[in-house]
Amino acid sequence: MIQIGYVLSGLIAAAIMFLGARFWWAPGAASAAFGIADSPPLSTGFTAWLSVKGTRDIASGLFVILLMANGSPRLLGEFMLLASLIAFGDMATVLRSHGSRALAFGMHGLTGLVIVATGVCLIVGAK
């Protein structure tokens, strides 16, 4: 179970860092793919806010890698459980903005569930 948890953690870290970088390199495409309804057109200010989001995503992925390198499956698992709140919060934000329900549940909600499952694998495997 621990191996599965570490593999999933690595994939999640890579994905979130890629998505964060996308907010820097292609902010319009990244913003549209997020699912929030009526996002404003790109401007200097909006692009700056998207860069802030991208930076936080990259840092979140690096936190996962740091915890993976630490070698404590339980701590990594507990972190992943807490980190799932980011994905579930994104889901709620998309739904609250009357954005795409398919993206809210299919991307953000499913991601949250995968992160929870990853955390559970690590915690159960560490016992």
TrEMBL record:
The keyword Membrane applies. Pfam families: DUF4267. The chain crosses the membrane at residues 7-26, 46-67, 79-96, 102-126. InterPro entries: DUF4267. The keyword Membrane applies. It comes from Mesorhizobium shangrilense. Keywords: Membrane, Transmembrane, Transmembrane helix. This is DUF4267 domain-containing protein.
